[in-house]
Each structure stands twice: as structure tokens, then as C-alpha cells.
Amino acid sequence: MRVGRFTADGEDRIGRFEQNEVIDVTPAAESFAEALAQTEAVAECDGESYDLNEISYLPPTTSRNSVFCAALNYQKHAEESGRSVPERPYLFLKLARSLVGQHEPISYHNTVTSEIDYEGELACVIGSPCRHVSTEEALEYVAGYTILNDVSARDLQLSFSYENDDMIDWFAGKAMQSTTPIGPYVVCDEIDDPQNLSIASRVNGETLQDENTEMMIYSVAELVSYISSLVELQPGDVIATGTPEGVGVFQDISLEPGDEVEVEVEGIGTLQNTVSEAE
């Protein structure tokens, strides 16, 4: 089952996404977090249906939730970055206002950044509260999986130096408003093993990243367990699990207005967005 959020007739709704339509299941769940926790009720709800061309996709999380991101979580990406493998998960946060849904523009002001990059990632979405959970039980708290494109402003992210040591500006480089695509929805109860999924990123149809999630340094379960040791994870929280090798900055590639960016993950689908100059 595929659960997400969308706008139709001027209202935000919760939907069960099917092949060519989305069913409004808002009557079955008072919140998106509840929809993730009560998938049986969502599966049985027979609300109004909408053609996918009639809706606007919203990020499959909420403004109350947190978005955790793992950096350098693929060996070859760490190598292409010239950095060592982290001794524990290396994390940063995004704001909910950084997110955009399927088909929504990746909006950057060209007066702020001129080096925009893609980073295709598998993301898990938490379904029930968890704190100090073990790796062995961690996936029991995952409602499902979605796709996140950790679009990055490289000229801002990598611009600092301090006493000859490089510093990374995670906020400016990774969390600007309306820059991070996520979606199209959360795939629930369909992916048995998140560590064996193909993942690919394409720009204007050209494949630039092509890997399998089995190459992660820290698995989804390990990330959930580790983050839950730091804070309580809540339903709707997102954990982006890192990107494989092939990002643009190490190939002298920057995204330009009008570029079509796709991230495809096996078992989920394709997240599609266009780069746009913000007004």
C-alpha cells in the first residue's frame, strides 16, 4: 500500500495511491501519523477518488516531524568525497519547509547559489514512537519507505575553512526553503529488505548514480537504532539514508534551471522534479 499527502479542490488530504488514481482516506485518519500507524483502516477506506493529474503532491511527512539525514553512508561516496568512513552515523537535519513534493520545482535563487547538485537517497518513515530500540527490532518501527533527493548548494556547503581545516555548512548547503524533493508517497508493507534495492539518479535522462542499498555503511536498522538513542523518533519522522557515488560536484556537473531530475528506487517508483529559479 502507498500512503501519501496531496492537495485537491484547495484542501490538503491524505491519500492511498493506486495505479492511476488516489483515494482520499482522510476520513479514516485524523492525521498523517495516524494513517501510517493504522494502515488497515487506510486500506479499507473507500473515499473519493482523484485522477493523479488532478492533484498536487505534498511531502509525505508533516511540519511537526523531523527529517534526519545520514552523510557519507556509502563507501564509494566517502571515497569520491576524499573523506574517511565515519566511525558512527554522521547526521544532519533538514527543516520541513525545505521539502517539496513530487513534480514540484526545486527552487533556488541564483543570487544565493550557482552550484546545485543532486543526491538520490532511500528514506524510511517512522510509523510508531521509538526510543533506545535495538538494531534487531528497529525495522518494526518503520511504517515504510520513500525517496528523497538531497539537493545541495555546493558553493555554500563547502565554502568555509577555519585554521586550514575544512568545515561544512550543512544548513546553507542542504536546508534552504523548497529545495529538497521527497515522495511521491510512503510504500508500506511491501519492502521486506531495504538493504537490497537498486537506486539510480538521472538528469535529463542521463543516469549519473546507479547503486544498490546493500552498499550502505550503516543499514536502515542501524540508523533507526542509533537516532533513537539520541532522541525519541515520532510517527512521520523521516530518515534519509545517504547517497551513493556519482554526485555532480565530483563530475563538474551543476544543475541548471529547466533540468529534469529523477531518482528511482526499486519497489517505490520515481521521484521527478524540475530545477527552477525562485521568484
Question: Which key features would you list for this structure?
Answer:
single chain; 279 residues; alpha+beta; 12-stranded mixed beta sheet; 5-stranded mixed beta sheet; 15% helix
Helical coverage, percent range? 10-25%
Radius of gyration: 18 Å
Low confidence ranges? none
Sequence of secondary-structure elements = EEEHHEEEHEEEEEHEEHEEHEEEHEEE
Q: Give the number of DSSP strands.
A: 21
Shape: globular
Supply the helix-strand structural class: alpha+beta
Helical segment tally?
7
**End-to-end C-alpha gap:** 37 Å
Describe the largest sheet: 12 strands, mixed
Q: What is the overall pLDDT average? A: 94
Percent strand: 35-45%
Structure description:
The protein starts with a strand and ends with a strand. The model has no long low-confidence stretch (mean pLDDT about 95). With about 280 residues, the chain is of the alpha+beta class. It has helices at about 30-35, 40-45, 75-80, 135-140, 155, 170-175, 220-230, and strands at about 1-10, 10-15, 20-25, 50, 55-60, 65-70, 90-95, 100, 105-110, 115, 120-125, 140-150, 150-155, 160, 165, 180-190, 200-205, 205-210, 240, 260-265, 270-275. Strands 1, 2, 3, 4, 5, 6, 7, 8, 11, 12, 16 and 19 form a twelve-stranded mixed sheet that branches. Strands 9-21-20-17-18 form a five-stranded mixed sheet, with no helix packed on it. A two-stranded antiparallel ribbon has the order 10-13.
